[in-house]
Amino acid sequence: MIAASSTLALVHYLRCQGVLDPRAVERITGQPEDALADPDLRIPADQHYHLWEYAESVTGDPAVGLHVGQTVDPDRMGLVGHVFFNCDTLGEAVTQYARLHRLINESVRLSFEQTGDQAVLTWQADSPGHYCRQDMDRTISSMLCRTRHFIHPAIKAEWLDIAHSKPDYAVEYQELFGGTVRFGCEQTRVAFDRRHLEHPIPHRNPFVYSAVLKQVNSLMARLQSRRTFGRKIRRLISQQMSTERIDADTLARQCHMSRQTLYRRLKKEGLGFHELVEEVRKDKAMRYVASDHYALGEIAFLLGFSELSAFSRAFKRWTGIAPVQYRQKHRAQYPVDAAHPPGRARS
């Protein structure tokens, strides 16, 4: 799930570019534009990423993510942004940003470490299906441009590792960040001179910081509670996928609740049972095909498809390309999930 404030920022950019179609936004996100202003609203990751694809199409700008991130508007910052820019120092701000990142995007993990004379931020998508080139461009671009605007204009990156392949607009990364850039890496990482962490935050307001931090901590507690249930259901679906038919009644009994209660608790997270099954199947499919460890026929069976042709059609619907093409493109990039090995294939 993605904070609706991130979706709204993209919508605002499209309006400024003169290409916004409110009906298309509502069709893609499932929400009218005015509803996106709700600070508690969260948008399914797939819908948010689909909006990025739409944005690239209507703007004709492959680098739209980098360009959206360069737009700095204090009035449109989310709660995490207000925490960040009201900390005492940049070091404290980065630490809070990493801790609270799940409020922005639940499908991407952010970690922060200091090694030697460098400070390194690392973004890792939970699964290949939850990596979006445009959204990652916007994330790292926004992070740098806001820091330069509010804290120190001379801050630049020492180096960048980018998880997606080298795009046609690759030169823009070097121009924007200032450091060495590598593409096709396992994770997206941005390194800075750790001395920047000592920069004080100008114009910080300790009263705003205290009030907003209290609010985001409450949101984090609620999110953690919801994610615990969501992870449990995803895990059960994943475990049963290769051994038996996925059935809501069976899963509900395993959770000691009725099917209606299962549906209701998922709905509170903005999730649907059948959508979860589809999401788990899609993520596993992309991992297994990319790993080159199983034959495509085996993968089809392990994911509950009756025949290879049905799996191939579903895979092309999910990714836009056939499994064979995807395997050639992503060979060995993602390992099979060793923590949840699939069941033994039918002989």
From TrEMBL:
Keywords: DNA-binding, Transcription, Transcription regulation. This is AraC family transcriptional regulator. Residues 231-329 form the HTH araC/xylS-type domain. Signal peptide: none annotated. SMART domains: HTH_ARAC. One of its GO terms (cellular component) is cytosol. GO terms for molecular function: DNA-binding transcription factor activity; transcription cis-regulatory region binding.
